[in-house]
Every structure is written in structure tokens, then in C-alpha cells.
DNA sequence: AATTTTTATGTAATCGATTGCAGATTTTAT
DNA sequence: ATAAAATCTGCAATCGATTACATAAAAATT
């Protein structure tokens, strides 16, 4: 491996000091235009490249940020990450992506690894199954490493977050079903200790109450965001004495499972039962029977989270303020819930 | 931010030198059992954590590796990355993920950024649209930064790779279609300057030639791995005077598009036309009409790529050997290509 | 012309951990 | 008891870049 040229090499060549080279290269202090030019030309000539590690050690900044998500193979998270990258790259930051696979232990491990890797901040969406133990978050907070939640947040004093208005998303989706004439609307929920799922549940409930329909708690089932879980849960619902005629799912994946189960049972969608999902995953659009879903503008969410991070990291750490950004979701109506057939825009 | 404790702090407390502390902590040289114990206890007590940046500077290793993929929101790449992570984490490495979105410029930028971030190696799947310009790869090679290709590789002397036998995957898939009695099998190809697509094409062609069927080049169309592209291309095929009765697609996404187009045209799958994809993306299994596809064991691929990296990075750089690992693909037969209906295992 | 101000550069410490060499201490051998 | 060997620990340089402070040189001021 050819040795890299350092500022000392440049200094020696020009018979000046490394300090001067450093200053010239950073354009900072008062360096004569002549030497500045000379240095930068020589630097280019010698193929100089700044050693980020040395700089990181000196400045205490690694220019790495950690991003922790439950998983990356969902379009939603992949898109949020993309948004984060787009916003952070121009500022010289790199993104280290970690997956929790919804396991608290992995989440904790990830945080420790990132801390260990000297990241300048952590942007994350918490995993399910929070056991009330906030030790790992506290580790971040204690070290004063900026922490920003996106989508799946935890209410911690002083911690900023970027989320969507899940209540409204759920409310709109449910309202849409009611407007279509459905009367017995079930809800495939998820771990409601996670705020987003709690809010989706509350939005759903409120829409039903507001419409004058009867709210039936037995139509709410908690499950996991997996296709097969959706099937299983739907099966239970179909076996009820008085089965639902519509389903609002807090996840597109469970919605998909529900649809499979419904079709298998011989019922028609949306004539007999209607289904609405959440997240607007690409497959909801591509299915032959396209699925109505709630869009969460993930790229935007990522960008905003990144912006909040940049603000915090560049803050003169006088006042530490907490920022809560809330995006507005958009209901995308497709075949799976539309009784009056219209030309479906794919 | 509370200042972190360093080995100097520990040294001061114990009235010894930082050197001793360092050695004691690293368990390495000859340090008396007594001090070793004392040091590690004090370290724990003082909440000592090694500063990775300093270590990185000293050792010249960052313990970061870059992973470059066209995109992360496909199950295939996400899974490869997961395999890489699983293999690398236990060795203290972190993974920096970059996406090229199949743009050569982004690919080059990513490589430079990673180089700049002092990564210890780069594992990558090249983007489409290679313009024959290998400058960015050469930059890596010149700096002696280990480079390992997975899946989409480029033949460069001395560079290791982990791929699957795309020829065989395509051959098996096509053979399966022939065995099912299809006679006019089209192929949705992709940029054939990329080896995997070239090999899939060749496997397809060979299977047809071996079977004695006529090989018709007009049934091969080059497109992009996107659902909508699949639709467009399928449309063209269906408009042919003598339309195909089966399609082997080099991508699950184009296969999906093709299926949509076929259904819209009123033809039945697999009775009238059959479709086979490539990659075994989860949706191929979840579709109501499940799609036959070729599994590439992505997690395994990721692990192997990581292992090759570890070997190279730990190599005493005497002999630089090139390693070509080739995995065997597996054809997963589902409804979209099975004329004799059987119970489909979902 | 002498003094002050400005400008440009050098000196040396610093970030935190590692390591070759040397010196000190203990153990073993003669 | 003395020399030789083995064991442990300290000294100081090193990785590469940054920066407060000092100083030299040039420009401006009186």
C-alpha cells in the first residue's frame, strides 16, 4: 500500500510547516494568497487527501451518524434512509445503518456499537417490544449524543422527533370506509405500547364514534406486521359469529395477509369485505387488486429528521430544545376499498 | 458532555503509565496478573471505553467497511447486507451502506466517499450502465483497499467475488418451462454488459438449444428491473404476430409487470402464458398468483462475501490471491408456471 | 526614523492509543 | 554470592491534523 501523502510531506516539499499547510488547505486564518495557492497546487499534485481519522480524533467528530430501524427491506424504512442520506451527504456525513429486527436486545447492541464507533448522532425508529427499560437511550443522552426519533418514537423529555399524524391517517382511512357504507369495521392493530400503533388505534376508534356507529372492542386485534400474521388474524375475524365487513390494518403487510385469507374464504373484495392498509408500500399499488393505504411521505420524513439532527449538532449547546415535527399523511384510495368502480390510476 | 475517561486517567489513578494500562487492557504483552486485574477493574469502575478513533488513527484501520448496492429496498440486497452484517459484526466491523440507484456517477461518488471515510474494504454489486470506465475501481485497487464483488461483478484481475451460477439458474428455469410444454419462450433481459444478465441470457439460450426448440432472438428483449418496464415490454411481446407462450424474466419486478399486462390482456396464467422470475423476492410468494422464481440465497451470499473480505484483510499481503465463489441457485416452482395444478406451498 | 499595527508563519501541545527500546526488578543458574 | 536470564514497567515516539500562542517580517502611523 503506497503511503498516503500527509500535510507533513507537503510541508517538507515546500519548506514550510505542517501548520501552514493545514491552514492554507482549510482556507481559514490569514495565509497569504501566494502560499495558499502554492500549497493547494502542491497538494493536488501530490494526490493529497485529508485523513479523516486524524481529523476525527482531533475534532472529536466522526462525521458518521447511526440510523437504526427495525428492518431495511421495507420500502418505508428504505425510503426514510434515502431521505436521510440525501440530506446528510452534502454535509460530509456518512450513515451507518443498523437493523433491530424488532428485538430489544439487538437494539441495545446496535446503540452500543454505534456509540463505540463514535457516531455524532443517532436517528432511529424504535423496535417493538420495548420493555420499559430506557437504559440504552439514556446511555446516548448521558453522552450528549444527539438522538432523533422518526416514525416510531418514544416520549422522552428533550428528545426531538419526526413523525406523521397517525391519528389522522387512521381517522381518514376509517372515515373513508364508513363513507363507503361499511358498518362493521375491524382493526388489525399492533403493539400499542408503540405510539404510532396506539394513535392509529385511537384514530380508528374516534372515526367510528364520530360516525355514530357502534364501537366494538372485539373487532380490534393486536398482531405483528407480517403477512402470515395478517392471515392468521383475519382467519379469526372471519370465524366470528358476526364477521366484519371491512378491515383497517395498521400495516400493509398484515393487510396483504388479510386479503389472501379473505379470497381463500371465497368472499369478494371490496364487495363483501374491504381492506385498507397503512404505509403505502409499493406492492399495494402493484397488486392486481390494488390496496388502499396511507402514505407517510418517507423520504420527506428522512430529510426532516436529518435536518433536525444537523440543527442539534451545530447548536452551540446553550439551550437544548426539543423539536416535534409532525407530517400529514395522505390516504391513497385503491380498489380494495372502493365499491363504486372507477378507473384505477396505477 | 462529560469527558470520557482515557487510559491516561486510569494510569494517573493507579500511578502507572498509560503504556501499561494499554497493554494490560489488550491482554497482550507480559503484564503481571496483578496489575492486569487491577487495571481492568479500575477501567470498569471508571467507565472506561476505548476511543475507536484514536485506535483507528494509530492502526490505520477504521473497522468500517463500505457496502455499495444499486438499492436497499429490494429484499435481495437487503438480505445480502444482513448476511454481511451478521458475519462482520462479531469481528468488530461496521457497515456503511451506500446506494447507487444504478447510476454510474453515484457509484463513483460513493466509492470516493468511502475511501475518504477510510473504510477498510468495499463490498459491492456494480450498477448498471458501466461505461467501461474503471477509474473508480482502480482508485480502490491502487490504494490496496480490499474490494469484493457480490452478485453483479466485473471481471477484474485479482479481485475476488461471490456470485451465483446465473447460467444454471436461467437454464433450470427455462428447462422447467420447456418441460411444462411451453414452446415459444421469451426472455426479459437486462443490460447484458453486466455479467449476471449476460449469463442468464446464455443459460436461457442454451436450454432452448439443448431441447431442440427453435431459438428466436426476437423473443429476447432488454429492459430494466422495474415493474412498469416489465409491463411495457410485455405489451410489445403480446403484440407480436406470433406471441410467446411463456416468459423467463431476469428479474422478479419485470416478471410482475409482465403478469399484470398479461392479465389485463385477458390471457390466463399459466394456462395461456407462463411466467418465471428471478431472485425469489418475497412478493413472488405472497401474490395470489404466486410466481415461480430462482432463489439466490442472499444471506449466504452476504456471509461468504464478508468471509472473503476478512481473509483478504487479515492476509499478510504476501500473495494476493483472487477467489471466485459461486453459489448454486435453486428454482422455486409456483403457480405462475405450473400447468398441472398442485397444492401450492406458500 | 522610530514605533505601532498588521500580516504571515513557525513552535509546540493536543486528541487517545500503541509499541520498540531500555531500564528495573525478580528469578534462576552457576 | 554473582552472573545470566526472565519478567515487568516506563520512556518517548508515532499515527495526521488542528490551533493557541509566539515571533518575525512587512506595512502603516506619527
Structural description of this entry:
Chains A, B: InterPro entries: HTH_LacI (IPR000843), Lambda_DNA-bd_dom_sf (IPR010982), Peripla_BP/Lac1_sug-bd_dom (IPR001761), Peripla_BP_I (IPR028082). Chains A, B: Keywords: DNA-binding, Transcription, Transcription regulation. Chains A, B: GO terms for molecular function: DNA-binding transcription factor activity; transcription cis-regulatory region binding. 2 copies of one chain form a homodimer. Chain A contains 13 helices and 12 strands. With 346 residues, chain A is of the alpha/beta class. Chain A has 3 domains: 7-50, no CATH class; 62-164 and 298-327, Response regulator (Rossmann fold), CATH 3.40.50.2300; 166-296 and 332-337, Response regulator (Rossmann fold). In chain A, the strands form 3 sheets. Chain A has a 6-stranded parallel beta sheet with strand order 2-1-3-4-5-11, with helices on both faces. In chain A, strands 7-6-8-9 form a 4-stranded parallel beta sheet, with helices on both faces. In chain A, strands 10-12 form a two-stranded antiparallel sheet. In chain A, β3, α7 and β4 form a beta-alpha-beta unit. In chain A, α10 packs across α11 (252-264). Residues 342-346 of chain A have low confidence and may be disordered. Chain B binds a DNA duplex (30 and 30 nucleotides) through α2 and α4.
Amino acid at each position: 500500500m503506497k503511503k498516503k501523502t500527509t500535510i507533513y510531506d507537503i510541508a517538507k516539499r515546500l519548506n514550510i510547516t505542517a501548520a501552514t499547510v493545514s491552514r492554507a488547505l482549510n482556507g481559514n486564518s490569514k495565509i497569504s494568497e501566494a502560499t495558499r495557492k502554492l500549497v493547494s497546487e502542491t497538494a493536488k499534485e501530490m494526490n493529497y487527501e485529508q485523513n479523516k481519522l486524524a481529523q476525527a480524533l482531533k475534532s472529536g467528530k466522526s462525521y458518521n451518524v447511526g440510523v437504526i430501524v427495525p428492518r431495511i427491506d421495507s420500502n418505508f424504512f428504505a425510503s426514510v434512509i434515502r431521505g436521510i442520506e440525501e440530506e446528510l451527504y452534502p454535509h460530509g456525513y456518512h450513515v451507518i445503518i443498523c437493523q433491530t429486527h424488532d428485538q430489544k436486545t439487538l437494539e441495545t447492541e446496535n446503540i452500543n456499537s454505534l456509540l463505540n464507533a463514535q457516531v455524532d448522532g443517532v436517528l432511529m425508529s424504535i423496535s417493538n417490544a420495548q420493555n420499559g427499560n430506557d437504559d440504552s437511550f439514556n446511555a446516548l443522552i448521558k453522552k450528549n449524543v444527539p438522538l432523533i426519533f422518526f416514525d416510531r418514537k418514544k416520549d422522552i423529555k428533550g428528545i426531538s422527533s419526526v413523525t406523521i399524524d397517525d391519528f389522522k391517517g387512521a381517522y381518514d382511512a376509517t372515515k373513508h370506509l364508513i363513507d363507503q357504507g361499511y358498518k362493521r369495521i375491524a382493526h388489525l392493530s399492533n403493539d400499542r405500547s408503540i405510539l404510532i400503533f396506539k394513535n392509529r388505534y385511537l384514530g380508528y376508534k374516534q372515526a367510528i364514534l364520530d360516525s355514530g356507529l357502534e364501537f366494538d372492542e372485539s373487532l380490534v386485534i393486536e398482531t405483528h406486521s407480517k403477512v402470515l400474521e395478517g392471515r392468521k388474524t383475519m382467519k379469526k375475524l372471519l370465524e366470528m359469529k358476526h364477521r366484519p365487513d371491512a378491515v383497517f390494518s395498521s400495516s400493509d403487510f398484515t393487510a396483504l395477509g388479510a386479503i389472501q385469507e379473505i379470497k381463500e374464504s371465497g368472499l369478494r373484495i371490496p364487495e363483501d369485505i374491504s381492506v385498507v392498509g397503512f404505509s403505502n408500500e409499493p406492492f399495494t399499488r402493484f397488486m392486481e387488486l390494488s390496496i388502499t393505504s396511507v402514505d407517510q411521505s418517507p423520504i420527506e420524513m428522512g430529510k426532516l429528521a436529518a435536518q433536525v439532527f444537523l440543527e442539534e449538532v451545530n447548536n452551540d449547546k446553550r439551550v437544548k430544545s426539543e423539536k416535534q415535527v409532525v407530517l400529514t399523511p395522505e390516504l391513497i384510495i385503491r380498489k380494495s376499498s372502493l365499491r363504486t368502480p372507477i378507473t384505477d390510476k396505477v
